[in-house]
Amino acid sequence: xxxxxxxxxxxxxxxxxxxxxxxxxxxxxxxxxxxxxxxxxxxxxxxxxxxxxxxxxxxxxxxxxxxxxxxxxxxxxxxxxxxxxxxxxxxxxxxxxxxxxxxxxxxxxxxxxxxxxxxxxxxxxxxxxxx
Length: 131
Fold this sequence. Notes:
Elements: H1 19-38, H2 41-67, H3 74-90, H4 95-113
Helix pairs in contact: 3-4
């Protein structure tokens, strides 16, 4: 166990708390990039899903942990993109086009969900509308 004595505020929000973490994260990143060279197709698909859910979890952690905002719709926006991509792929659309289409659909749903309400909905006291 490593104890870190903090002497400045910036140490609380540093990405890497000590030099050892840089090494382990670098090793993990190297393993992720080398995985397609020696892993079966099934295991590579499972690793891809783990990475996707990890990115979604990290996004939620940053939103809730660093900003203190509670996100009830985080999984819903992820689900909209996943559903749109699956429907486009099922219709025979090539993968790159399906990814772009799912991104556009997700952006459209996000724009519709925040339309004329600002980021915080009705609780923003009119600051986003210029009142």
